[in-house]
Amino acid sequence: MVGAAEKHPELYARYRQDVIEPRREVFRDVLRRGVRTGEVRPDVDVEAAVTMLIGSLTGRFPTERQPDDFPDAVVDTLLRGVAAGAS
Questions:
Q1: Who's near 76: CB < 8 A, 6+ residues apart?
Q2: What is the pLDDT of residue 20?
Q3: Residue 8: what pLDDT?
Q4: What is the gyration radius of the CA atoms in the chain, in angstroms?
Q5: Is the sign of the CA dihedral 25, 30, 33, 39 positive or negative?
Q6: CA distance 20 to 78
């Protein structure tokens, strides 16, 4: 679908509105709840975090097998950060 976005921008806009954005909103809600409960920094860039989470989970080929713990590893890595000394 993304590959056809240039040829069919109206179709892609509808796909984004009806399929992608509702799913992104679920991630936004989870992160905002994490901010409220103190599990996520209050200054987190929610949109950047959502993009990192979704991109990591959808960036592989559908036929490529992911380890069962891959989603957990993605979330743990995002929450810990990748910089040396990050906690």
A1: none
A2: 86
A3: 84
A4: 15
A5: negative
A6: 21
**Chain length of the chain:** 87
63 confidence band (pLDDT: 50, 70, 90): low
Burial 48-87 (b: 16+ CB within 10 A, else e): ebbeebeebeeeeeeeeeeeeeeeeebeeebeeeeeeeee
**Claim: this prediction has a pTM higher than 0.85:** no
**pLDDT band with cut points at 50, 70 and 90 for residue 66:** confident
What string of DSSP letters covers 14-29?
HHIIIIIHHHHHHHHH
Structure tokens at 63: 């036929």
